[in-house]
Design a protein that fits this description.
The complex is a heterodimer of chains A (about 375) and B (about 100). Chain A is α+β, with helices and mostly antiparallel strands. In chain A, about 25% of the residues lie in helices and about 30% in strands. In chain A, strands 1, 5, 6, 7 and 8 form a 5-stranded mixed β-sheet that branches. Chain B has about 100 residues and is mainly α. Chain B has 3 helices and no strands. The radius of gyration of chain B is 19 Å and the shape is elongated. The chains are: A alpha+beta (about 375), B mainly alpha (about 100). At the A-B interface, helix 1 and helix 2 of A face helix 1 and helix 2 of B.
Chain lengths: ~375, ~100
């Protein structure tokens, strides 16, 4: 053995040292990724609805808060364990994965018990914040079920020893709806759901803040309706290739059907130009002879696109976007007041480049002042 | 009088060269294992290819500098090949970064 080492030349000494270092790294990796626990939990975050959100804070908080007198107090002072939120800047671009997966040499994370989140729904221009508590019994029962039925659940990762790995994902939606899922390969299991209260918004940023520097994606924040739709589409595409994407807002907006009549007054509507979009980004052309769609049995529209005819107009295309909460509230009020059987009317009145929206029945008119209309080709 | 034999017998001529080549291959395998084996994003994998090739080139060059002929020239050939691969992979990486925009997703 001694003779072996004495016969080595200097290059082999260097290579041997490198070998030892690499073996150490590989062993460290192996032990870091193969602990006794069966479920490796990674914490990701995302705007999983496909709706653009602007994340100010999103942290999974660890298992136990140490007692006041303990030595571990600084861990909490330093910030949440888990996600390296130093890479998460306010204004993380829509549809990206933020700081991405946990690094290759980072430690495994404890199961979190709370999600601290503060985000802005770009569509609503409204911010929500608070804590979502993750029930440990719920998480345990889900994991126990996955353990009991491994044939039904394919995990998102297979580790070298064929142990499954899952992700924890937070979906942030309009209306302050936050859902936390455990993600597998073709499914996701809901762990927690909460409606967060609205908080004062800081979006859009004040002048002087260089938004283009804050965004990691090439696109700046949406300034027009067309840009917003492009960003939403891109976010959807980015998610569709990783897991089946079903927007929870689908249940809110399409599960509930309303009877209403949609009329566009003012300038005449060009035939076959009325398109309604819904909160799940589905688009549906509506027949509107003379600007009147007749009786609709539909979800509440999220937006309308149409073309008006009129002399001396610079542009004829219009995109009207409703504020989701406002229009739902209006429907609820109208439903409560109107005579039974009466069909309320969602009326847009266009004059020049202005569009007014209101929901009305015979006894009540509800104006929709938060409706936004974008003028020009989409 | 013949000279006294030294404490260690002279190594066979190919000992250091073959051992060094084996170490280079083993180190490359370990580095590949370290960089690619566990959960890595596509983005990182794209970057690790030139990293791995550069590490191989550096090791072959180190071994060539410490070896004698006729191994020396073949080690330089291996270093040149892996170095060229590293250069191409690095150019490809930056080309992807600049034009393909496939990252960050």
């Amino acid at each position: 053995m001694n003779g072996f080492f004495r016969r080595l030349n200097w290059a082999n000494w260097v290579l041997l040292g490198l070998f030892v270092v690499l073996v150490t790294l590989a062993l460290h990796n192996y032990w870091a990724y193969a602990p006794g626990s069966r479920h490796r939990l990674r914490t990701y975050y995302d705007d999983a609805y496909g709706f653009p959100v602007y994340i100010n804070q999103l942290d999974f908080w660890p298992d136990e808060l140490p007692t006041a007198g303990s030595d571990d107090k600084e861990v909490v002072v330093l910030g949440p364990a888990g996600i390296d939120s130093s890479g998460v800047r306010a204004g993380t671009a829509i549809g990206t994965w933020g700081s991405g997966p946990v690094g290759i040499d980072s430690d495994l994370l404890p199961l979190p018990t709370a999600l601290a989140v503060n985000y802005t729904s770009v569509v609503e221009q409204r911010s929500y914040g608070g804590r979502v508590l993750l029930s440990r019994p719920r998480l345990d029962s889900v994991l126990a079920h996955l353990d009991a039925h491994p044939e039904q659940y394919q995990s998102m990762y297979a580790y070298p020893d064929n142990q499954p790995g899952f992700e924890l994902q937070a979906g942030l939606g309009p209306g302050g709806l936050v859902v936390v899922w455990l993600l597998g390969e073709q499914y996701r299991v809901e762990i927690a759901r909460a409606h967060l209260p609205a908080v004062p918004t800081t979006w859009p940023k004040a002048a002087g803040v260089r938004l283009s520097m804050a965004f990691t994606e090439p696109s700046p924040p949406a300034r027009t309706f067309a840009e917003l739709r492009r960003q939403v589409n891109r976010a959807e595409l980015a998610h569709l290739d990783s897991f089946p994407h079903i927007s929870p807002a689908l249940l809110d907006s399409l599960g509930q059907r309303y009877h209403y009549r949609l009329r566009v007054l003012g300038q005449p509507l060009l035939p076959a130009t009325l398109d309604a979009t819904f909160l799940n980004n589905e688009q549906e052309p509506l027949a509107a002879p003379g600007g009147d769609t007749g009786l609709l049995v539909r979800a509440v529209p999220d937006g309308l696109q149409y073309t008006v005819a009129g002399p001396a107009l610079r542009t004829h295309e219009r995109s009207t976007v409703f504020e989701p909460t406002e229009i739902r509230r209006a429907f609820a009020r109208v439903r409560a007041v109107c005579a039974p059987g009466e069909v309320p009317e969602l009326r847009l009145t266009t004059s020049g480049e202005d569009v007014r929206a209101e929901l009305r029945c015979r006894r009540l008119k509800v104006a929709l002042p938060q409706t936004i209309t974008y003028v020009g080709p989409d | 009088m013949p000279p006294a034999p030294s404490a260690t017998p002279a190594p066979p001529p190919a000992f250091n060269a073959l051992l060094g080549a084996g170490l280079v291959l083993a180190n490359s395998l370990l580095l590949y294992w370290y960089l690619f084996y566990y959960e890595v994003s596509e983005n990182d994998k794209t970057f690790y290819v030139p990293v791995l090739a550069t590490a191989m080139a550096a090791q072959w060059a180190l071994l060539a500098a410490g070896s004698a002929q006729p191994w020396r020239k073949w080690f330089w050939v291996a270093a040149g090949l892996s170095g060229a691969a590293a250069g191409l992979a690095l150019v490809g990486y930056f080309w992807l970064l600049a034009f393909a925009r496939g990252f960050n997703h």
